[in-house]
Amino acid sequence: MESRWILSNGRTLSSECSHQTRYHRETSVFSGHPYSVRNGAFSDGGELKAMSFPQRQGLSASERTSEEHKESEADFRTIIDTIPVIAWRTLPGGSGEFWNRRWHDYTGISFEAARGWGWRTAIHPEDLDELEKKWRADLASGQAGSVEGRLRRFDGQYRWFLFRYEPLRDQTGNIIGWYGTNTDIDDLKRAEQKLRDSEEEFHRMTDLIPQAMTVLSPDGNVLYANRVALEQTGLTLDEVKAQTFFLAAFHPEDIETLRAKREAGLSSGEPFELDLRAVRKRSGEHQWSLVQYNPMRDEHGRVIRWYVTGTNIQKQKAEEERLRNENVALRDEIDHFSMFEEIVGSSEPMRQVLRQVAKVAPSDSTVLILGETGTGKELIARALHRSSSRSTKPFVRVNCAAIPPSLMPSELFGHEKGAFTGALQRRVGRFESADGGTIFLDEVGDLPAETQVALLRVLQEREFERVGSNYPIPVNVRLIAATNRDLGAAVASGAFREDLFYRLNVFPIVLPSLRDRARDIPLLMDYFVGRFSKKAGKNIKHINKDTLTLFKAYDWPGNIRELQNVVERAVILSEGDTFSVDQSWLERKPRDTKSLREGLPALAQREVEMIKAALVESQGRIAGPSGAAAKLKIPRQTLESKIKSLGIDKYGYKARSAK
User: Fold this and answer.
1) Pick from 33, 42, 36, 90: which is nearest to 66 by CA?
2) How many Cβ atoms are within 10 Å of 6's Cβ, its own excluded?
3) Topology, domain 4-183
4) What is the architecture, at CATH level 2, of domain 514-589?
5) What tens digit of pLDDT does each residue of 361-410 get?
């Protein structure tokens, strides 16, 4: 049967046109005896026969047909020489018979030198044996095949090529030749090598990390485990890749938790972590590990890898257990130093405070306790008293911010009968009540200016006078003061006497905020949960893990007082034996970082602005329904005190309204 192919010039070529010309349709490779090409035509003898149109018109029909066949063959040869691969043909036994022009252009080896098995000289010596072995095996089997090898270029450089070949069979199935191509894959090989080098570098880096690490496929199958992971488990990489890996690597009691949470976490596509007990190869014991899963996504957001790290947290777990067990011992230690029993905490900042308390408590030195609201300043003051030689004497607490300025002298120093309207009898003041013991002035920064003078005299002379009396009364008290204000800034603004500040600031103790002692949060939670559950008649045994995490993450602007209130409310609402809180209770609120940096001076400035605005609206009037105190919704006495302490001229606003 005759077959025909369409040529680029529009003519057709018959498969029976020449016994020396063959075309394998499946491989699109032309082969035949070598031809010489000149100006688009060649002959069997290799001589070009360029024929003009008039010459062709003078030929007979058979001669024109022969000429067309030659031009068709020239077209085929042009195609074969133009394709961007090296094309070749061998005899059935593998002996080279034909190469296209790209062979010579690349290797520089002539067709005559390459014939037979001469082509082997172009193969890299290190690849020749393997390549020839594969080639001969495929020749024997009669199967198509491929092999990679390095082929020498005309300049002596070697590049990687992919050798692909197929047999051509006759109608009876016998192989009559082999057709093949050599495709340059050097760039691909270099890219593959670079990728392998990158993977090896990644493996070397992860092997140096002192932490167990594994790489998972999107569905959770293990692809790689670093050296530490293999050493810790005592397993091989193949064993780690097995589906039952975690059965041998983790505590049997944790397997079900691992299965469920791992499956849920992988399905979510979001980072997650697990606390598990992992087996240790050397000791055979199980130790706690924090296993963290982090996804890697492609440009479309699809998870393509999971990177898993295992961090040994046995020490942390043991430390948590130790802290829980030592909480009672810590309270015993506090009692040993006569500390107040409700001081709970073992963080370094609190230990430092307790060390300071232990050192200064036996003395009679004045102590100034500084700290944010709710940090436990009164507890420290009581601890100082109970640790001192005055512990059997009175401890008198005075909240300076809660007493109206007009009543402050009488409250602190007492008054005689008839000293003022309503003074129907003699009254003993707080200093006199604390004689021999300790007086604690809380919020000392809110003292009115005139009271500051009287307090300074007590500290200097160790005596005072009752209101309405001219007789000094000696007093033996230890003074402990506390404030959440910046007294240094108050001194600078004139709101607090400088000489009084130096008298109070003999031994300052700065209490850390709860943010700075976050390590104590679990202990405080245990303490308050136990205290309030007992008070409410409930049996709460556990604390929800998410709640604990939430408590640790919250910044607690109200410090311990706020934590205590949240715990008490949650205990009241709790119905089971597990303590938990609503996440909305501890939502973060935006904080003015600038104000935090500026501290209390900025707060005082805002107070000044608010008071001045209220004075403008009330035209300098303080009391009454339309006065500034009513507009600010604070007592008149408190406003008067603040106007004095902040140095505001209230009379100037009356003058403006008159104008």
Assistant:
1) 42
2) 9
3) Beta-Lactamase (3.30.450)
4) Orthogonal Bundle (1.10)
5) 999 999 999 999 888 899 999 999 988 999 888 899 999 988 888 888 88
